[in-house]
Amino acid sequence: LSVRPVTGTALRVLIAEDDADLQRLYTVTIGTWGMPLSVQVVGNGFDGLMQIGLNPPDVLITDLMMTGLDGFEMIRRLRANSALNDMDIIAISALSRDDVDERGGLPADVTLYGKPVPFQELRGYLQAKLAQRQRSSSADSHS
């Protein structure tokens, strides 16, 4: 599942979600936003790590509870690699913050949202990330 970029300056977004209905919901909803996004969807943390190894996204949106390699372990492995520190990570989970903490918590730089998926917040987050990129690329072109 993928949403093709509108321009070459597209923000690369990887979504790790094992629920097929949610995968479709992400793809359809994000596709209606008309933003320059290149979206890929994988079904588990292992495939997420493989995809990130091939082409690191600008933003990773991950479920925490997935079969096989879960979001907690995937995030731990990603944050152990300093080359990936620029990648934003958003975790979306039905777990309470206390449950997340009981499972070892998340790094301080990981944004945690509850389920159902808060698409308005995600949209705002991605819009801000795109605006930040446009500001830095226009600053680069003027220097």
Task: Please list the strands of the largest sheet in the order they lie side by side.
Answer: 1-3-2-4-5-6
DSSP summary: helix tally = 5
Low-pLDDT ranges: 1-7
Describe the global form: globular
| CA-based gyration radius | 15 Å
Strand content: 15-25%
- Structural class comes to alpha/beta
Give the SSE string.
Answer: EEHEHEHEHEH
- Average predicted confidence as pLDDT: 90
The total count of strands amounts to: 6
* Helicity level: 40-55%
Question: What can you see in these coordinates?
Answer:
The chain is an alpha/beta fold and 143 residues long. It is built from 5 helices and 6 strands, in the order ββαβαβαβαβα. Strands 1-3-2-4-5-6 form a 6-stranded mixed beta sheet. The N terminus is likely disordered.
Q: How would you sum up this structure in a few lines?
A:
The protein is an alpha/beta fold. The chain has 5 helices and 6 strands.
Characteristic terms for this protein:
6-stranded mixed sheet, alpha/beta, 43% helix, globular
